[in-house]
Amino acid sequence: MKMQTSRSDRRGFTLMEVLLVLAILVVLASLSTVFITRMQRQAYVSAAKAEISNLESLMQAYHINVLSYPDTNQGLAALRQAPADLKDPSRWQGPYLQKDVPMDPWGNAYQYQLTSPETFVISSAGPDSTPGTDDDISNAN
Fold it and tell me: What are phi and psi of 26, to 5 degrees?
């Protein structure tokens, strides 16, 4: 006599069990993506702050030698090559920066502005790549 197997005796997973596991995996993957994206943004902001701080230090060295900061038009390029309109070109002891001026972590150029003879601002447009918004990063903050 043949015994009938009941549905509960079968091996394997039901469709509902598979869908439940897939739903849990999707939720976990989306949470990890949000976490990783947030961590990457924080890392980029930290990298931009560090680079601005480095450029600020190099500007201080430039100022010690040349006795003034580059004007806004000369900008950060003055760290790589002596500006043509220096009052005393022999005072320039660069290059102060061994490679080209780096881009910010979002691929945009750092901005430089001489705000007075003794102060300057180096800034990045930040994650949104739009200058003048709340996420801008600068040595003035």
Answer: -65, -45
SS3 assignment, position 106: coil
Backbone angles phi, psi at 66, to 5 degrees: -90, -15
Q: What is the pLDDT of residues 21-53, one digit of tens each?
A: 999 999 999 888 888 888 988 999 999 999 999
* Kind and range of the H or E run holding 114: strand 111-116
Q: How many domains does the chain have?
A: 1
Mean pLDDT of 80-107: 91
Q: Is residue 30 part of a domain?
A: yes
Burial of 108-130, coded b for 16+ CB within 10 Å and e otherwise, reads eebbbebeeeeebbbbbbbbeee
d(CA 131, CA 96): 26
5: its two tokens: 């197997």
**Bridge partners of residue 109, in order along the sequence:** 103
